[in-house]
Structure formats: C-alpha cells, structure tokens
C-alpha cells in the first residue's frame, strides 16, 4: 500500500511503529498517531457511513469537532465504545476499531439505498411521513427507523473499567493551551497565583503544533513552545492534557473530563479510565480558539474532502499528506497557507480554487512560485469518485452564476470557508453574543461570570495577536486577584495572517433540488433541507434546527451552526441576529456515562447503611431489603423455605413463644431542655404535659396541612428529656422538620434536639415469653405488670450493658425494645439469642414485623398513609389532643376538605373467597357499572395472616368507617374479588396479650 | 453548582453542603386556629414564584445546620445576600446599589 | 464473623505510602447545646473556654471542644462523667442540653503526604478553607461528617456508624488510586 507519510515531518515517532486493526484489517501507524492520522497515512479516507443516508464518509477535521469519522473502539470484553472520533483516539498496540452504520460492509452498504430515497428523507420527513396510519408507528415505522438510523451500537456487556472524580479549587483556570492560553498562563502565574492550564489534546500548543514554520521572538514555534512549557511548570502552573472542559456551570464551576488510559496498550493497576474534575476557579480564561468552517457545495461530504487547516495539521503534526494531488477550494486566505505547506512537502497541488475575485498579490506570487494553478472567482459544483474523491468539477462564477464546468482529477479536496470562534463554554455562562458583520460571525460580548475570553475565540487572528491578547487576559485576571503582572512583548514572524469572506451555498449550475450540499455532515442535513424548512414556515433558527435536525448531532453543530444560520438568514432575507443562534449546552464533547457516574456504581452506587446486627443477619442467612438508605433483614429462611413459609413460621413462633427483631434503624431524637414538653406539645398531636417520667406514648406527627407525616413511640426519660423515635425512612425528615419549627418559628423555646439514632442499637423482643426471657438479664427494673407496665420506659442494665428499656409492642404481644450503646448491639443480640433458645426464640425480619402489626391494625406511615391521610381518616382520632391551643396540623385538620363527609377511611378488608388481595389494587362499590368505574379507594396492606388462618388487608375506602360489614369489589384483570369491610384490628381486639400474667413474676 | 454564603459560618461554600427550604418570610401565625380558611390556605399553599429577586430559605444541612434566608435572582441565579433567620427582609434598592 | 468497620479494633485499617487510614480508639463524646449567654458558666464547668467561632477548636488536658454551630459544640473528653456532673449542677440556672453521643460515630484518622489530595475525591469544599487546628461539619461522598485538620496532611473524620463501611471502602479505593498515580 502506498504510504502518505512524509519523512522529516510531524511530531509522531516514526521509530516506534504501532499496530492496530480497522474492521479486522491490520494497520501500522506511529506512536503519537490518532486512528485517523494512521489510516490517512495508509491512504484510507473512508472511515464510516453517515447517519441517515449511509453515505460513505471520511474525516473532515483533525480534532474533537469531527462529525464523520466515528468508529467503535474495543479493548476487550465490555471495553467497547461506539461513536469514538477517529481524529481524537490515539492508537496503541492491539487497539481494535470498527466502522459504523454499514451492512454488510463499509465499502458496500445496503442501507445506502436511503441515499437514493433522498426525496423521502428531506427535512421534517419524520413528521410528515409517519403520521398515518396511526397504529403503524409502534409496529412498523419505529422499529424500521431504529434499525436503519442511529449511530454506532450500544455496548451490551458491563464495563469493567473504573471511573473517578475529584474536586479542584484554583485561582485561575485556563481552557485551551494554544498560544493564547500559554501566554495567559505565563502572565497570570505571578505572586503565588495558582494556575491550571488544560487542553483536550495530547499535547499543548494548539495551532502552534500545525505551524512549525512560524517564529516567536526569533525561535521556531516548536522550540518556543517547549521552552514555554518548561517555564510554566517551573512557575507552578498545573498543566493537564487529554482534559476537556465539558461544561461551564454557575459561579465558575467547570466540569472537566480527563482521559487517563485510552491511549495505553497496557492498563496500569488501580488507574481509572477517566476522571471527572469539578473545578471551582476564582477566574476563568477561555482560550478555545476557532473552528474552521466547511464550504457548502454538492458532494462536499465525499471521503477525501477535508478542511484545509486539518490537512495542514495532518501534515505538520502527524507527518501525513492527506492527498498527493490535492485541490483547494476556499474563500479564505488560510487555505492558501495550507496549500503551500502541502506543496512544500511534495504534494502536487493541482489548483487553488478561490470563490473571491481578488486575493492578496503576495499569496498569488507564492502560488506562482510553487507552480500552483489558481482559479479565482471559481466554484466547485460536483465531486466524483466512489469511495474517495477522484475528480472535481470547477466552474467560473459570473455575476453569482456558475459557468461551464471543467473537470480536475485529484485525490483530495481541501476546503475552507473561514473560521468561527469557539463560543461553546462562553455560551454556557449565559454570555451574550454580538453579531460581527465583517467576520460574518457571532463574537462574545458580556458574561455574568468571572470569565475572560481571549484570542481566536473572540475573533482575533494570527499568532502574534493572540499571544498579546492572551497575555493581557492573564494580566487582567492577576490584577483581579490583587497581583501585579506585566504583558511581555511577542514578535511573531513567518505567520501568514489572512482574511476571507463568508459564503452560503457555493454557486452551482446543478438544479437546486438535486444538489446534496451538506451543512450538517453527521445528521445529513443539506442546504436544500434548510431552505425547505423556511419555505414550510419555520422562522426562528430554533425551529429550523428542530425541523431539519441541523446541529443536533453529537458534534452539537460545531461545523454546521454558522453555515446553517447564514443559509436560513438568506432564505428568510433577514440579518442573522434576527434569525438567532441556537443555544450551546454541555457537554462540549460527548462524555461517557462512566465519567458522570464516577465512583458511584456497583456496590458503591449509593450509601448502604448497616446496623451493628446486620453482620449476624448476614451470617444467619437473612434475605435483605432496602428501607430508605438502610438494608434490613426481611426474613430468615431455613433450608428449603420460601418467603411465605419462613414468614409464616416467624409469625407463628413469635405469637407462640418469642421473636427477636433488629429495630436499630428506627430514628431516635433526644429532645432536651426546660421547654422540652412545650415543644413536644406543639409538634405532636398528642398531649404530653401529663405524661410522667418513665412512661411512653405513641406520638403522631402531622404537617401543618393536617396530614400524617410520621409516628413513633416517645418516652419521657425525665422531666426535661424525651426519647423520641421515628420511622426508619422518616428519621432525617422529621429531624429537619423539627429543627425548622424550632429555629424559625419558636426560637424562644429553650429546647435542643440531638440525633441519637446511631448512638443506640435497638432490639425488639416480642411474644408471650419475652418477659420471661428478658427478666433474668435486667438489673434495675422489675419486669412485672405492676412495676413496669405496658408503655413504660427506664434506664437500667441488660446483660451488664447500660440500657434504655421500653415496654412497647408493635405486635400485640408482650414487647420490649432494648436500647444499648450501638457497638454492644451484636453482643446483646447474641446474649438474647442464646438465652432465648430454651424459650423457642425465632429471629424475624421486616416482613413478619409487617404481618404482625397488620393483624393488630397498626399503620405503617407511607404504606397505609400516602400524605393525604388525617388521623381521623386512619381511625386514630384518639391520638389527637382536644384541648391544646395549637400543634402542627391542628389548624390544618379544620380545613373544609379535611372535614368533608366523603373522606377515605382506613379499614380492614376480608375477601369472601379467601384470596389475598394485591397491594395497590383499586376498590369500587358497584362492580357492574360502566367503565371507567368510579374508584373509591385502594388496598394499602395485604398479607397472609398465620394467626387468623386467612389473608387480611388494610385499605382506604370512601366513608369506610360508616360502611362496616358492607361488601366492596376489587376488579382485577381476570376477575372481580368481593371483600367485606371490617375493623382494622383483626387479632386480639381486647389487647389481652400485651399483659404480663401475674403468674410469670420472677 | 452554586456557591452559598452561610451567614452563621461566615463562609462561602459549595451548594452540596446546603438544602433548599422554600420561600422565606412566610410567617406562621401565633395561633393558627384563629385564621380564616382563606388565610390559612394562603399560608399553606400560595407562593410567589418570582421571576427576579426571590426571598428564600436554605439550610446549611451538612454544616452548622442552621436555616437562613437569602435573596436570589431566579433569572441569573445570583445570590444578592444571605442573612440569618429572623432578620428582616433586606432593602432591595440598597442591594441593587451593592451589586453594581 | 463478617468483617466490618464496626467490628474492627482501633489501629491501622489500610495504608499506602501516601496515606494511612486508621480507626481511632473510642472516646467519650458529648453534644452540648446552649444559648451564647450561658457560655461563661458552661466554660467553667467544662474547664475550657467554649469557642464561639464555628469551626474553632480548643483542647486542654484530656478535653477537646469544637464549635459546630452557633449553639452547638462537640466535646471529646477523658473526663466526660465529670463534665456531665458539673453541667448537671448548672442546669436549673443555665439551661442547656448535654447528650452523650459516645457510641454514635466511628473516627477515622487520615494522614500521610497524600491525605489532603485523598479528601478531594469526595469533598467539594476547598481544603484551604479548613485551617490546621480547626474542624467542621461538612459533606464527604454525600455523607455528613465532622472533619478536623490536625496538621497540614493529617485529618480526623467522624462518621455515623452505619456510614463507616461505605466511606472506608471509598477511602481505600481512593488510596489505591492515588498510589497508582505517576509523579
């Protein structure tokens, strides 16, 4: 194969060959090559197929703005990434790459039939074509479109790579390490100012890497660059390459993605693939440079057609000639510079075609000196060549019209439509733009951030100009930070500074309906599509964009936005600012999900809180469930048991003997101070004044709207100290709510709240033998009905551990909750477990806890209530104090809606045929009514009850408390179930079981 | 991510340490049961939803744990000032003077 | 028995050349809440002037006191019973809340030349805003923690027990990542 590598050119290491594959074929490149530069060195331009028409495409750029050369890269199982830009991906030994959007292969693709169906696929064709018949969308159109369209293929295996994130605070962040950024860094790095300079490329230098002939202060640009980097490092500037600023957020927060391993053949241990940096900078300098614009003409997307500046980059940075017989088509001087570099490197430049009538005489003489033919005031009207350009058709322009064409054979066509400042990050800051008629482009104006934009990104051209501008930006930010700095003199020679004009579609003799002059290469949007959108009534650029999809591809219109705007403005016959510019949004370049996820994946996806007893549960085969951030043991299956069997056994054993349950996750708040009781009176519905120390009470917490927010048992440990418990999931919310009222409504109260959830391990013992088991272990309290009745609390010792003991029951059995210092939790559990063996103890989990409480009609906030349930709805009017002046929710309970007669009440349901209802199932009064039926409530809890020998359910039913004994219906997909409304208390309605029989005194 | 000045800590810190807590200066009556249904409904549900300078509450949740007030421009997302709970609503004209 | 931070003894948990993470021995700790006007009396009872600037930390004898909020202090002490007793005597005239929270947290010691850098993996604050000798309640990898900076590269981190495993795994992962970094 012919090589296009030029000896003595470029910064790649030709002494270090690197082998990789592309579509299964082996290629050799050099260390320092990208996939694109290595393939181009091997004469390969065809790298992919386009999104919509499956047209053959090659790289059009040499950077991250590349719309065409998207490939899949693969390292091993799971390490596959689609849509990687071949112009950015560095090669390494063993890299596997594949082209995309082709079937059966890249050179012959059946999908390219779309290209011939071009008329069908014009702007807005989705909206027009697939309107009818309506039911065809899901079955026919969408599957077809999904298969035919789309970029790349999603990976199917789990990604074994790791991703990282880090926070960074600095004085100055400079985005872009071209001449502007380098000069800015040098000027800003004074007096201890901490400067971070980043660049998305492998190395710093920006445009200097493509311009080795320029001389800065008498030094060749590359020597100057090397020396400058040494100086910057010695000044303490942190230089980060392969690092892209993807978004500019509020108050100078910049998101940056650093690529760490995608260029390595051997992955270092413990090194993440990418790292997301969250940077907060006092000052930001944007020095992202400018992007070259393509020209818009028929066939401008053929492989081999490329931006002139990119061809210059391939030559000077990678030592690759993109063609040996190139032709130039341009409206800007910069492409002449590229032509001269290619000619000097041995290319036979066939012609420079310039759309302008006059071009600087100096450039013309330089061309003549090299023997390059010039065609001023000419246009390109066609390109040909099946998979790579082999000739072009050039026509003179006469009065804006194309004259007779002439065919010029070539192997590359280098275009330049001028340059557009890169304003993406500036736009993220909500920075305003101003239209510059001379440059036919938007330039940055004001930004609300502490942000300075410098160099080519504010429309300046030429290395000398941008060095000076970068340095003044550096001085400006140093001064803003209170440091003196000075600009240095920069003298640049051999830099060819040029100018140009902006073009809409180039003049053509082809019928405009047939011209495929691409504006957005990646989304296959042509100039014709844009004009059609305007003809069909789109007036704003935002509408044109969405109708045509111009600028909506992964490159976010880096190539296409300004061309698209100019054409739309021309079609509307309005100046560009009146048509507007679409908004740039983060990320600047496509970013992996991994980079966003960072460390938060797999086991570390989110915090999993575990109690001190969790380890025992795990060792004893518990099945866990998440409850809020906690994981809790759900049930403890014995060998061969499924959940229903295990839960049945746990329920039975607890009601017959004793069960042990880890209640440590319950929220606990210590309320202390002289005004503690006043605070409790104001927060909870219940009266607290008369609760004696050593007693506890079930407390109900409402919102000011009158609806139930939380509940729990609250013990009065002493006159001024309450031990409040909350639901597991509600702990943080309740604490926040209490602090809110205390700090902002009642700051006069002398009371303070301390979260003690994690200070205690809490073990619940329930069952007829609970007292018998526990009593021998307790010192300081006598566990009799008289000395320590139901709803008592005390400080004592249990098994030698300091404890707070509560006599409470969430099961209807004799119950205790034992709080011991958290780290002693497991020891106490094991002690009780041992002592319980002779009593037939069982460990139970949250599922059994749910069943046992439902048998007693105890609610679970958030399950039986949903934020619209009042205490009266829940049948708990008894918990609402009647004589208090105020409590949170008291006024709410008087709201007209809350005292209405049609409230839904919590009731019990027993099915007539003994089936278990589904939680969440809707309830109706009349099963024979027309659909849609009037729904009157839903099932909130449903279990099989071992104690009752049948399923039981709780439900919210309209006026349910007035409908005891009535039958309601639960329509299900296959049948309708009838159920009778009952009390919520199914088991032991007289509460006889919570009493410790006097015979059990110990 | 915003930077927020906590008036208690007297430090300007990342938003990650704070949680938003709704509109500020929505006063709960001393004795709510004396309010009409209309007044109570306004207290519970009616909020300004300002385009422009909004008085709002934040809590330095992962810090000093205090609720405090802020004036923030909902268009630019800029904080004009933050101040302690219980302090009066600052004078906007003076603030505008400071901002320029 | 399943190995967790909760069951680990005090001492080194994990270390690289750059950072060592150890679990500190348990120490009695109290959460003190009161109004500013009462601080003189409370200072006397505790035996250290109660600092009033949030983040300020004072140590005397076996007692350390950190100001966490305008009315909140964390007291670590070898003589906590004595302090509790002295405060209890004041309660009638000097209303306050003193709650024993000795068993709520695990304390990690994070030190070594890369300690500060390690924290930047999960700590959005500017490390420079926490000066040596100070402490703060703050957020680390989405969990609330109390962080003391005892020296340029030595920190203590208090985390609630149930967060300890999660945060330790995060720190351990971070240590390995830093160790692999090329310098």
UniProtKB/TrEMBL annotation, chain A:
The keyword Methyltransferase does not apply. One of its GO terms (biological process) is tetrahydrofolate metabolic process. Residues 515-598 form the SoxA A3 domain. GO terms for molecular function: sarcosine oxidase activity. Signal peptide: none annotated. Residues 171-437 form the FAD/NAD(P)-binding domain. It holds the Pfam family Fer2_4. SUPFAM superfamilies: Aminomethyltransferase beta-barrel domain, FAD/NAD(P)-binding domain, Folate-binding domain. It comes from the Bacteria. InterPro entries: 2Fe-2S-bd_N, BFD-like_2Fe2S-bd_dom_sf, FAD/NAD-bd_sf, FAD/NAD-binding_dom, GcvT/YgfZ/DmdA, GcvT/YgfZ_C, GcvT_C, GCVT_N. Keywords: Oxidoreductase. Residues 615-884 form the GCVT N-terminal domain. Residues 904-988 form the Aminomethyltransferase C-terminal domain. Belongs to the GcvT family. This is Sarcosine oxidase subunit alpha. It comes from Pacificibacter maritimus.
UniProtKB/TrEMBL annotation, chain B:
This is Sarcosine oxidase subunit delta. It comes from Pacificibacter maritimus. It comes from the Bacteria. One of its GO terms (molecular function) is sarcosine oxidase activity. InterPro entries: SoxD (IPR006279), SoxD_sf (IPR038561). Pfam families: SoxD. GO terms for biological process: tetrahydrofolate metabolic process.
TrEMBL record, chain C:
SUPFAM superfamilies: Folate-binding domain (SSF103025). Pfam families: SoxG. InterPro entries: SoxG (IPR007375), TrmE/GcvT-like (IPR027266). This is Sarcosine oxidase subunit gamma.
